[in-house]
Amino acid sequence: MKQQIIIIGAGASGLAAGITAAREGASVTIMEHTARPGKKLLSTGNGKCNITNLQFPKDAYRGNQPDFVFPALHTVTVSQTMDFFKELGIVLTERNGYVYPNSGQASTVLEAMLFELEHLGVRIMTECPVKEIKKDLTVITDHGKQRCDRIILAAGSMAAPKTGSDGSGYSLARKLGHHIIAPLPALVQLRCKEKWYKQAAGVRTDALVTLKIDGKTAASDRGELQITDYGISGIPVFQISRYAAKALNDGRQAAAELDFLPQLSLTDLEKLLFTRYRQFGYRPAEEFLHGVLNSKLAKNLLKEAGIGRETWVKEITEKEIKNLVHCIKELKTIIVSTNTFDQAQVCSGGVDTREVDPNTMESRLIRGLYFTGEILDVDGICGGYNLQWAWSSGITAGINAGRG
What we know:
There is one protein chain. The protein has 404 residues and is of the alpha+beta class. It is 31% helix and 25% strand. The chain has 11 helices and 21 strands. The strands form 6 sheets. It has a 6-stranded antiparallel β-barrel with strand order 13-16-15-14-17-18. Strands 7-2-1-11-20 form a 5-stranded parallel sheet, with helices on one face. Strands 3-6-5 form a 3-stranded antiparallel sheet. Strand 14 and strand 15 form a beta hairpin. Helix 1 (12-23) runs parallel beside helix 4. The longest helix is centred in the C-terminal third of the chain and has 19 residues, at 385-403.
């Protein structure tokens, strides 16, 4: 007799688990509480679906047990993931290690998965919120009770709730005895204390962003920094944001140090500015950094260094130039909060991975219960790593649940 499997959540990992479990010969039902499956998948990669990444930096995954991800990632590698989607008819393209569907449309990835699920006879029940899971693997919904042999909990996190990630899976797991590491926004913008951001809002510039927690360096990343009217955004900010969120949640002080010319050392920048001082003494001070940095940003940095707009370059003092060097290379900004779950791409925190077998994704507490994707205390950096985790964990769970 076929294994009866219920998958809760029709996101990336749930759909991947459904395909795999059905291919193993199981009878699969996917329950999705929203009106349509895969809504969050449609927004990934700015709508282009960054399926995976050929590069693997050492800090690609975070959590209380960062090594938890490796068995699943070794079971379902990047290469095997690409083969999985090629078998579904998706032609892939690679740009600097980032792998996308050649169509440039996330919708083609979702549709290919839905086509395969239909072909395999997988039932998808939409607008079907799960109220409770019993320890005997009975699932209770508005549509009644259903007993099964295996359950895969793929209900996502709390990030981007408009796409269906409302955190309901945490409650289901908690009632079954699982501990939940406090979910916090990750891959999210940071809100800062200083008032100058409104004057520089809209600026995009290459920068090195270093996170300081209680004065000590906790993380750093370089890339395109985006200045908003409330603080900082962009890939390098997203990459360090989970550590800022955790520090603030723990009542610690978080600050960012911004380097707007990371390609130059302090000494080289000082030489450059003194050369410009001698060369452009006839210019107004507000034009001192013309051609060096974005003009909106430059005006604010000059002000932070104490250089008045009404003076001339030749009137700038040596002390003010050295102040400006430090403002450009080491501008400190106090982080007061992150943006909310509404703006976060993923969460840090989730189901404690110490209670899950990393080789199978099966609960160590409830036999026949499996976890996949964002509901676990695993969060990846930007660049396709969170989707790779969804595929690897989902397929691993589908194989093991399907085989029984």
